[in-house]
Amino acid sequence: MLDAAGEVWIVHYDITTEDTATVLHLSERLVDSDRAAFETVLTRALSGKPREVVVDFAGLQYMDSAGLGLLLTLRERAQAQGTSVRLRNPEGAVRDMLQLSRFDTLFRIEAGAKAASR
C-alpha cells in the first residue's frame, strides 16, 4: 500500500496465545484499506472462542477513523460469543485517538508498563 508521500506501507498482523487470551499484534497502521485483511485475522483470532482477545498496539504507528470502526467490529463479534476485548500498549497518535474517541468507555485500555506487569 502507498501513503500520500508514495511510501510503501505493509500492514502486519500476528496472532499469539497468552494464558487464556488470544493476542492480536498489530504493526504499521490500521486504516480502511486494511478492512478485508483485518476481517480475516479477526475470524482467526475468534475461531477458538478465547476467553479474551488482547489487541497489542505496540507496533502500530497510525490508525484512522476506519481503524476505530474495525475495533468496534472486533468488540461486537467478540461480545456475541462471550469473549472480552482488551487494548494494550497504544502510544502517541494512536493513544490520543483512542482517548479522544472515548474508547476507554468501551474497552479496557492498558499502557505499556501496566500491560507488561500482567
Automatic annotation (TrEMBL):
Source domain of life: Bacteria
Domain STAS positions: 11-118
Molecular functions per Gene Ontology: anti-sigma factor antagonist activity
Pfam families for this protein: STAS (PF01740)
PROSITE patterns, sorted: STAS (PS50801)
Family matches, as InterPro entries: Anti-sigma_ant (IPR003658), STAS_dom (IPR002645), STAS_dom_sf (IPR036513)
UniProt record similarity statement: Belongs to the anti-sigma-factor antagonist family.
Record-linked PANTHER family: ANTI-SIGMA FACTOR ANTAGONIST TM_1081-RELATED-RELATED
Protein name: Anti-sigma factor antagonist
Gene source species: Roseospira navarrensis
